[in-house]
């Protein structure tokens, strides 16, 4: 998907959901995507600060690698959807602040941060997602075609699916679901044709 479409919310969500149409795979992503983001933020919060901030902000705000990532996510999400994006941005900022506080407390108490637990959660959640694609979706994730979705925007799209349950942007939801049904049907038909061709080759 070209860069000009990176901030077209409807196109982005349609593309994402076309790779996440199986109910079990969708549930696994719903359960795993935000823990992946939280654990990533936590791990980045363990990096050394690159500049000092006002003492009054410690330990809530630290100029570490996580801060850079959080700023990118916040701006990206709000541009994509001012309302759902702002909610997602608030959650991300909360996770960043929480991670900094937990790390500071752990270092003060034990001399090291609990990064191993965060890494374990991160890796396990990724593995579960790949299982969801391979076993249930039976379609590889579009990591190369849409790297930004795997790394940046997937949490927002999962949040949108939750908000849809409460009636958020129903018209857009209907258009997306209709197009996703077409995309998935096309993928399955083309896959069946390839399998048939391979058998007769």
Can you give a write-up of this model?
By secondary structure, the chain is mainly alpha-helical. The protein has one domain (about 10-200). About 75% of the residues lie in helices and about 0% in strands. It is built from seven helices and no strands. It has helices spanning about 10-20, 25-45, 65-80, 85-110, 115-135, 145-165, 170-200. Helix 3 (about 65-80) packs antiparallel against helix 4. The radius of gyration is 19 Å and the shape is globular.
Please describe the structure with a list of short key phrases separated by commas or semicolons.
single chain, 201 residues, 0% strand, Mpo1-like, DUF962 domain-containing protein, mainly alpha
Number of folding domains? Answer: 1
Contiguous runs where pLDDT drops below 50 for at least 5 residues: none
Helix content: over 70%
- The proportion of strand residues reads under 5%
- Rg over CA atoms: 19 Å
Q: Kindly, what is the distance between the CA atoms of the first and last residues, rounded to a whole number of angstroms?
A: 32 Å
Order of helices and strands: HHHHHHH
* Topology, number of strands: 0
Biggest β-sheet strands, sense, barrel: none
Morphology call: globular
Instruction: Please state the average pLDDT score.
Output: 94
InterPro entries: Mpo1-like
Transmembrane segments: 27-45, 57-78, 84-103, 115-135, 147-166
Keywords: Membrane, Transmembrane, Transmembrane helix
Organism: Aphanomyces astaci
């Amino acid at each position: 998907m070209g860069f000009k479409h990176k901030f077209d919310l409807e196109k982005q969500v349609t593309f994402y959901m076309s790779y996440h149409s199986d109910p079990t795979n969708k549930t696994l992503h719903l359960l795993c995507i935000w823990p992946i983001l939280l654990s990533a933020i936590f791990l980045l919060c363990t990096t050394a600060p690159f500049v000092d901030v006002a003492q009054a902000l410690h330990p809530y705000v630290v100029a570490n690698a996580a801060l850079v990532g959080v700023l990118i996510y916040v701006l990206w999400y709000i541009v994509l959807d001012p309302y759902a994006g702002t909610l997602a941005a608030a959650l991300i900022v909360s996770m960043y602040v929480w991670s900094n506080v937990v790390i500071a407390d752990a270092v003060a108490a034990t001399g090291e941060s609990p990064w191993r637990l965060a890494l374990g959660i991160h890796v396990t959640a990724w593995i579960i997602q790949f299982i969801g694609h391979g076993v249930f979706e039976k379609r590889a994730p579009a990591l190369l075609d849409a790297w930004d979705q795997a790394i940046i925007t997937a949490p927002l799209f999962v949040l949108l699916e939750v908000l849809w349950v409460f009636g958020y942007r129903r018209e857009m939801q209907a258009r997306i679901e209709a197009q996703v049904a077409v995309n998935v049907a096309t993928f399955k038909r083309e896959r069946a044709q390839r399998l048939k061709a391979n058998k007769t080759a």
